[in-house]
Amino acid sequence: MRALIARDLQLAARVGGSGALSLVFFLMIVALVPFALGPDLNLLSRIGPAILWLAAVLATLIGLDRLFQADEEDGSLDLMTGAPAPMEMVVLAKVIAHWLTTGLPLALASPLFGLLVALDGTAMGATALTLLVGTPALTFIGAVGAALTASIRRGGLILAVLVLPLMIPTLIFGVSATEAASGGTVPFTTPLLILSALSLIAAVIGTFAAAAALRWSD
Known about the structure:
The protein is an all-alpha fold. It is built from 10 helices and no strands.
């Protein structure tokens, strides 16, 4: 498992990967929204967490279609399938590597990008924490769609149609947790714990579902 994670991290660093592209896409969305809404700082600060979370959801989709497809095309996936390690471990290793290069940079960069939507320090910290907790759920959900479309060329649009509805609960509780930290009507820990539970559930179900999808495609 460590070898698979190291392999995917090396490949991401060597060819540029999807992490940098996701980060640039994240920045583009966050930077363009204030131009569309106007110079109302109160409005921007109120909807800022929702903007950051929506941008994170869309940026997570960047490169998900290549999560298994590249290995399917060059035959690496067949070797992994025939390896002694179970397919669930292979899926888990690849998803962890993808999150380290995509979801983690988005969470770490969110306080800086929060300046573009006039967030205060509390909202920036809460957004970063919720993204750190919630982006694994987005990645594991996306992994199921990536496994289903691994053998389909240019399956990015199909992948987005499949996984975006499943990402909505994570988006809702991520935004709710951030708003709660900024003085909402519910305690911050309540939606944060639900968000953590969604990530844990997605990790379990997503790993087994993606592995089953890969076996079925074979």
